[in-house]
Give the backbone structure.
Amino acid sequence: MKKFVIFPNLIVKPEQKSNPYIQDFIRALNEEKDACVVNPSHKNPLLSILFPKNWGDIFVFNWFESIPDFKYGILQSIAALFFLPLLVICRKKIVWIFHNKRPHADGREVLKKMLGMLIARLSTLILTHATEGVEVIEKKYPYAAHKVHFVHHPTKNRLPIEYKQQIDYDLLIWGQISKYKGIFDFVRFLQEEQVNEWKVCIIGGASNQIFQELKEIAPACVTLVNHSPSFEELGEYIARSRFVLSPYAPESVLSSGMLMDSLSFGAKVIGPNVGSFRDYAHEPHLKVYTFNSFHDIKSIVAQNKDEEISLSDYRSFLEQHNWTHFIHTLMELLTTGK
């Protein structure tokens, strides 16, 4: 039985919305007959795994280089810098899931660089969900190039039985509304270019200040919904939209849970020409389109707005790369290294 420690394993309150990646990861490991997760959820997930009673054989770190952006980020970073070498001394295996080219938030760059260099050096295995992630590791941490592997972001199948015919929106942008995601930049583009032929819906949770700032610059073609939708609601919005748009800034993004969740509902997706968006633009089972600038979106919409997806093709892709497959791949890599 392989005992795993998953970081960060935060306590999620019923009223909170969180990235489901960690909970899905834990659930999939616990469903595997030869694996289990031993660290409980905690309001301070790094502090909780510093104590040996919560140790396993394998430590999986997600967003490790972003620890400086967490609460008490400086103190947690110092603890992490000492903790990782201790795990190596104790002969624990370390897996680094490399999600982003760099942390989304700015600041504390020296600490982030130190943490990235340390985990690249000391990890047993590095996994990335975009082929570009392999290139980034090879360039930034050439001494770790032999440890990095591309593995598809795990998927779920939420496909509808059939599609509704009513289309209310040309473009749907969903998820937490944050400035780093490029949403403000896209709305300014619509305003400056006087794009009024599209119906755009932006739905997601946001602070009152952020939402008000966005509302002030949004043209009439944009519908704003300050609400974090359930997956059931999201499926309805996607079914009523021609495309899901990810206006993410390409400087940091590699893989995207938003992309994979959108595909799980059978969405046609438009995203930046980087990372997993670029990977899946070449995947014949999917309808993913990429842009180098917002101007490219005009031709993408015009040429592909009436193109239909194949539910059977999407289903084949989603089932081939589900969480069970991901866990099996992880276990095999831990055993064989290849």
